[in-house]
Design a protein that fits this description.
The chain has 10 helices and 8 strands. By secondary structure, the chain is α/β, with parallel strands linked by helices.
Length: 216
């Protein structure tokens, strides 16, 4: 797949499910629950112990059924290791030019973190494929309308400890997708599965389903 195709597939459901845990086993279990619930885009934070191994395992197990990426990619070395582990996209809470360049060198989309209009413009100049608006939890969705009024070309993905119930409101405000983090993935298997299924159903009802998976 080309980089733009991977980006489109990663954003197709309007949610990137993020997994950050205190152990490899718990991360793998949570990721499996989210994938079983129907998510097709999943990000494993490298802040998770053995996060790279978790990425490699999920890429192998999910195959073409899901787009598995690496999050919390802070530098070029981590970016290269994530690519070698099989990550289909790279995400970061910060804007680092070398992470963007490393991902693009290998045809991998990069979603750097931005918090201000200046960072948004800088990320666009670097060719970022979409932008993680972080931390979004301290803002109301209306802030996205203000940003996009001046920068309508910015493909913003609010992320952090977002209220899952507010995800549709962020999408309606102009986000191309959301990455709710712990609010989506915490709890036992049944709670996570129910929360995930309810969110996907609500998004499909309110915004429609993307008919094209972006595979090629």
């Amino acid at each position: 797949m080309y980089r733009w195709e991977i980006t489109r597939a990663a954003l197709a459901q309007r949610v990137i499910a993020t997994v950050r845990s205190d152990s490899y086993d718990r991360a793998a279990e949570t990721a499996g629950t989210l994938l079983s619930a129907g998510f097709t885009s999943l990000e494993i934070s490298l802040a998770t112990p053995f996060g790279l191994e978790a990425v490699a395992t999920l890429v192998r197990e999910a195959g073409d059924e899901a787009v598995i990426g690496a999050g919390a990619v802070l530098d070029a070395a981590s970016a290269r290791l994530a690519v070698e582990a099989g990550a289909r996209f790279l995400a970061s809470p910060v804007l680092d030019a070398e992470v963007v360049r490393t991902g693009h060198r290998y045809g991998i989309p990069v979603l750097p973190g931005v918090a201000t209009p200046a960072e948004i413009v800088r990320a666009l100049e670097l060719g970022a494929d979409a932008l993680k608006f972080f931390p979004a939890a301290g803002h109301r969705p209306a802030v996205l309308r203000d940003i996009r009024a001046e920068l309508p070309q910015a493909a913003l993905v609010p992320c952090g400890d977002l209220d899952v119930e507010a995800v549709p409101e962020w999408i309606a405000a102009g986000a191309v997708a959301c990455s709710p983090g712990p609010a989506l993935a915490e709890g036992d298997r049944d709670a996570v599965a129910k929360r995930a299924e309810d969110l996907l159903a609500r998004l499909a009802e309110e915004f429609g389903e993307d008919e094209e998976e972006g595979e090629g």
